[in-house]
Amino acid sequence: MIQVENVTKLYGGHVAVDRLRFSVAKGEILGFLGPNGAGKTTTMNIITGYISATEGAVKVAGYDVLEEPLEVKKRIGYMPETPPLYGQMTVREYLDFVSDIKHVAPPEKEKGMEKIMDLVKIGDVQNRLIKNLSKGYRQRVGLAQALVGNPPVLVLDEPTIGLDPRQIMEIRALIKDLGREHTIILSSHILPEVSVVCERVVIINKGQIVAGDTPENLSRRLAGKSRVLIRIAGTEEQVRQVLAGAPGVKNLAAQGSVEPETVDFLVEAENEEDIRRPLFFAVSRAGLPVLLLKPVDLTLEEIFLQIITEEKEVS
Amino acid sequence: MTAIWKREIRAYFLSPVGYIFMGFFLLLSGFFFAVTNLLPANPNYTGVLGDITFVFLFLVPILTMRLLSEEVGEKTDQLLLTSPLRVFDIVLGKYLAAVTVFLLTLLITCIYPFILSFFGSVAVWEITGGYIGLFLLGSAFIAVGLFVSSLTGNQLIAAVITFSALLLMWIIDWIIQGVPTDKVSGLVFAGIIVAGLALLVYYSIRNLYISIAVAVGGAAVITIVHLLNPSLYSGFIVRFLEWFSLLQRYQEFHMGVLSLSPVIYYLSFSFAFLFLTTRVIEKRRWS
């Protein structure tokens, strides 16, 4: 459905996107992962025809973005990083305007708007001015705007940014739902988000693809580092001894003391096994109370470090 | 395009901009009308129309400054440019919205000659011609303002530059009186234009060879024209600047003469700036 072929974008001398190449199949949800400034937004802007690539081509449903921009734009709903909202309009007026510029035929317009407002749950604010809406609502109006006209392709740039946890869950569920009928590219800098929603993940850094795989394979590759944060009442010396004696522990890092008379430790497992049980038994055998025990997700920076070092080892 | 037009008209009257424009326009034109016609009991209304052109200088920037600058500033241009609309349609929709607000205001001022007609005979055709001219002149100014608005994301800067550009066009007739008309300066000026053109080409496509080709081609044209008809260069600067003298054309309408050439001049002037605006927007997405 979407083919990105060797796309390069230069800003003056700075390379924002460097020979990027991937494709998205029809009905697929692709996660686009990368730290800030990796070139995610630039790539999305190129796919949607907002800016043009310095080199390379993008095809959507077989149409070239540069040669037949209108055919491409008809098929894409784009939610940019900053939702493009007119503060002086009410939500309904805004969606009406978007329906008009997307050439939605009048008989379907009302019905389509109702459906979308229902879907992203903004029906209760439909007559309020957009400038008075909270960040969460604005974000959802931005998503609603992308859905107008029911385009087969959705490009969503950080759709859950600025939302509260409950809204994030709702939006993720919605995107997953939309994925049944739409081809979706979704950018994010949060790994769990992408792995929950997407069928395939492309990780980019400094404008280049560093990894591309299913979330499962990706996490398997990265699984060597399963880590747990543990808080135990006791002295650091005592706790260190106990933890070091537990089976399957590879690395220990003291994190200082948050609660009085306790210590926090970051425990890294030798392999991908869950070490929470052995840890618990080891500590309880020593007669020390466990106050907190939770797995720590890999941060994106660590994933990058790991992937980049992996690549160096290969080459 | 209709959708853009509708939204812009609404935006004018949902924000203070539309009211400020209309209010000041009517206030000032009313003032001119009172001072010129009412108080001295003078039926010559075309003089007021001439004065109104002066009001444009200050009010057109207010009307046009937000048209494109605001979209860029608020990032809503992303919505427009990724929707299935041609850039020219977007530009035209915005232009027509500003022209509509302007036309509405102008129509309200038709009350003044109507009032005059109660007290004596008014020169109907001269006034009609004057209004048509005023409308075309204002539309051309709006096109310039729209163009400037596409250059910056800052509304204030857009307003100031538009004002300066309009002021320059306003006083261009004075400038013309001061420029040299001899052949040499005409040649030098043609050279400067070609050099400027080549530079412009270089900055827009960053290709040295094509830019040099433009420069060489331009120089060749200058030379050939010089060989064939050197007299073309005397007064060249004047003729070049006159092209931008919007007010000079207005004089004809003012006198009640309705000929086709100034109409076409204004329309093509507006169109040229709409085209340039489209290019600027497309160019920004290219670089």
What does this entry look like structurally?
- The complex is a heterodimer of chains A (315) and B (287).
- With 315 residues, chain A is α/β, with parallel strands linked by helices.
- Chain A folds into two domains: 2-221, 3-Layer(aba) Sandwich (Rossmann fold); 226-297, Alpha-Beta Plaits, CATH 3.30.70.
- Chain A has eleven helices and 14 strands.
- In chain A, the strands form three sheets. Chain A has a six-stranded mixed β-sheet with strand order 6-7-8-3-9-10, sandwiched between helices. In chain A, strands 2-1-4-5 form a four-stranded antiparallel β-sheet. In chain A, strands 12-13-11-14 form a four-stranded antiparallel β-sheet, with helices on one face.
- In chain A, helix 3 (91-101) packs across helix 4 (106-119).
- Chain A starts with a strand and ends with a helix.
- Chain B has 287 residues and is mainly alpha-helical.
- Chain B has two domains: 2-175 and 246-286, no CATH class; 182-234.
- Chain B is built from 14 helices and no strands.
- Chain B has helices at residues 2-14, 16-38, 46-74, 77-81, 87-108, 111-117, 124-149, 155-170, 172-178, 183-205, 208-228, 236-242, 246-254, 260-286.
- In chain B, helix 1 packs across helix 2, helix 3 (46-74) packs antiparallel against helix 8 and helix 7 (124-149) packs across helix 8.
- The relative contact order of chain B is 0.13.
- At the A-B interface, helix 2 and helix 3 of A face helix 1 and helix 4 of B.
